[in-house]
Amino acid sequence: MNTLIIYAHPNPNSFNYAILQTTVQKLQQKQHEIRIRDLYEMNFNPVLKEDYFTKQNPAVSKAIQEEQMHFSWAKQLIFIYPTWWNGMPAILKGYIEKIFTNGFAFTFTDEGAKGLLQNKRAIIFQTTSHPENYLKPYQLIASMETIVDVGILNFCGIETITHKFFYSVPYVDENTKKAMLKEVEDIVEMI
Ligand SMILES: Cc1cc2nc3c(=O)[nH]c(=O)nc-3n(C[C@H](O)[C@H](O)[C@H](O)COP(=O)(O)O)c2cc1C
């Protein structure tokens, strides 16, 4: 199975990096074909400027087309990122702005918008520092899920099978972190 990992964390000592490693190990055991887009390691420039895409200017640069080919290749997408200001880090937001272009990821028909990345499934691993009992009553989890799972992925035809939050990451002990990484394994095992 072709699995594309989109990873957005600058620090190789982070818990997000441990999630990445656990995910890769599990996918290797399952003999998936894996590609990793490590956005910080790639030094990805997230600012949509020269590549700004409109109907009047439909050219997509070669670099973006090459990035899009990874999504065409993949059957499964795994996003791994921390919560920064109640959403994804800007580098990942900019990546999506640049890669999920009109005509590649979605189009508009007489019946309305149509996702073009059909038959792909996504898993999201997202960490927080706030506890669940702060984030949920304010609907911050629901809003992050809606924006990513519905507003971005489903809009492009991708089905989110799991959007897993790991809460209070900087404050939990080592055993809790181990249990979280076991949950990562169990989720990756399902796919
Ligand atoms: C710029 C920035 C913004 C952040 N905003 C939030 C936030 O809105 N909500 C939250 O729960 N944690 C927030 N955090 C904390 C991170 O989500 C947390 O440290 C991270 O998920 C822990 O995983 P890590 O060790 O892999 O970085 C923020 C951290 C940074 C650096």
Structure, briefly:
This is NAD(P)H-dependent oxidoreductase. The protein has 191 residues and is an alpha/beta fold.
Spatial arrangement of strands, main beta sheet? 2-1-3-6-7
Number of domains: 1
CATH fold node name: Rossmann fold
What is the radius of gyration?
17 Å
The CA-CA distance between the termini, in Å, is: 9 Å
Overall geometry: globular
SS class: alpha/beta
Mean pLDDT: 96
Strand segment tally: 7
| Largest beta-sheet characterization | 5 strands, parallel
Task: Explain how this protein is built.
The chain has 191 residues and is of the alpha/beta class. It has one domain: Flavodoxin domain (Rossmann fold, 3-Layer(aba) Sandwich). 38% of the residues lie in helices and 23% in strands. It is built from 6 helices and 7 strands, in the order βαβαβαβββααβα. It has helices spanning 15-29, 62-73, 90-99, 132-135, 140-153, 174-190, and strands at 2-7, 33-38, 76-82, 106-109, 112-115, 120-127, 158-166. The strands form 2 sheets. A 5-stranded parallel beta sheet has the order 2-1-3-6-7, with helices on both faces. Strand 1 (2-7), helix 1 and strand 2 (33-38) form a beta-alpha-beta unit. Helix 1 (15-29) packs parallel to helix 6. The longest helix is centred in the C-terminal third of the chain and has 17 residues, at 174-190. It is globular and about 55 Å long. It starts with a strand and ends with a helix. The mean pLDDT is 96. The site of flavin mononucleotide (FMN) has 15 residues, from helix 1. Flavin mononucleotide is lined by residues 9, 14-16, 82-86, 127-130, 169-170. Residues 1-186 form the Flavodoxin-like fold domain. This is NAD(P)H-dependent oxidoreductase. One of its GO terms (molecular function) is oxidoreductase activity.
